Amino acid sequence: MPAKGGHLMTTSLTADAARALEPAPLPAKVNSGVANPLLHAPLLPLLIRLAVPTVAVMLMQTVLSVAETYFVSGLGVDAIAAASLVVPVMLLMTMVSNGGVGGGVSSAVARALGGGRQDEAESLVWHSVVIAIIAGGLFALAVIAAGPMLYRELGGTGASLQQAIRYSDILFGGAVLFWIPTLLQSALRGAGNVRTPALIMLGGVGVGLIISPVLILGWLGFPRMGVAGAGVAQVLCSAGSLVAIVASMRSAGSRLRLRRHPLRRDHFGAILGVGLLSTLNAAMTTLSIAAITAAAGAFNVSTIAGYGIASRLEMLLVPVMFGFGTAAVTVVGTCIGAGDVVRARRAALVNALFVAGLLEVLGLGVAFFPGLWMSHFASDPDVLAVGEQYLRVMGPVFGFIAVALSLYFAGQGARRVGWPLAAGVLRFACALSAAALVFAGRLSLESAFLLVAGGAIVGAAVTVWGFARGDWGRR
């Protein structure tokens, strides 16, 4: 039986790969009779065109994050520690809203528009606003209530704990202002409009670079708010993004209009059926990072620093994977909505192969020459040794990570996230096991890195197997 299953998987993948090289089918039409480029344009150029604006702006957001860290670093160790305590919680909310529920919104809107159901797509937009208000409110209540205990458990004490609580209360007090534009941007991407979200995000980065130092450091006569100023700046940027995107989607020229619709259970289901499972995957990714960080912390400060610098390279890969991932959600979802399952699977495969090839080349480069990255951030031999060890182990599996994430995003578009979720569980289990064994003194740090890398390979294999045997045409 296993041999037969393996043969079927190989046959299916070979067939998909062959179809990916075939000419595109005849152009499909939307209701107006005009050819929809999402349904007929050459796939790789289309995916690149949809991905590049998102990738570019997310890289700019990374620049803003680094700049805020620099501004806070001038306030002293307590301020740096306070910001560091809040970062994992903010990262969790960002991943849940963008990659989790946001993926569900993009997928549902793309499927509706692919099927020519404009009114349903606009109803889904209104439902996403309702979800954003509820989710943002729940995040705000949970973090404000549990924040002091959480940050204390993470090691916060004295002045650093008090500053973390103040920063967190301001930041998450504006969670609804963060969630609404995030999900509306996801809806626009699902409709194939990547320009408007990119411009709004770019505007937010520009405003953030201006007002963050003013509020944090007290420039231009403003009161010096310290790390809390970073929270105020982020809330103000979210509010500005909300005003901009609502104005855009209420305008007559918007393809996807924001307006009231009756609330329907099936429309909530169309979003959350993908979004809730994707949220679990996003949460496990965040917890995996926390587990490996904790494992590094079990050794010494040099180990934490070395791992932190090396893993920062992986964080810079996120914009690439997310940008191409959201492009895959849009194309796959639109094709599924239009009933073109063959093109949907072809798009998923082309996207996965392209992104995996791109990141594998980079991964092999840093595996063979880890000093090219590490030497820019550290000179301490112990720090360099740990970071270079991590890159030698993890660099060669960058392509496997890309395959798993690319097919995960494609699965969102097809409303098929079960196998990618199973792969995420396996990766999380490997990371958690590595951390537990390190704490028990039964595993070296290098062996822990190898276990995490093995989890990435197994996760990619499970995702590919699920894609190969999946039936995207079944409702």
UniProtKB/TrEMBL annotation:
Signal peptide range in chain numbering: none
Compartments, as annotated in UniProt: Cell inner membrane
Membrane topology: Multi-pass membrane protein
UniProt KW Membrane keyword: yes
Molecular function in Gene Ontology: antiporter activity; xenobiotic transmembrane transporter activity
GO cellular component, one term: plasma membrane
Predominant place of localization: membrane
Recorded coiled-coil stretches: none
Pfam families named among the record's database cross-references: MatE
UniProt keyword terms in alphabetical order: Cell membrane, Membrane, Transmembrane, Transmembrane helix, Transport
Residues passing through the membrane, by range: 46-67, 79-103, 124-150, 170-188, 200-222, 228-247, 268-296, 316-336, 348-369, 389-410, 417-441, 447-468
UniProt KW Thylakoid keyword: no
Entry protein name: MATE family efflux transporter
Protein source organism: Variovorax boronicumulans
Lineage, highest ranks first: Bacteria, Pseudomonadati, Pseudomonadota, Betaproteobacteria, Burkholderiales
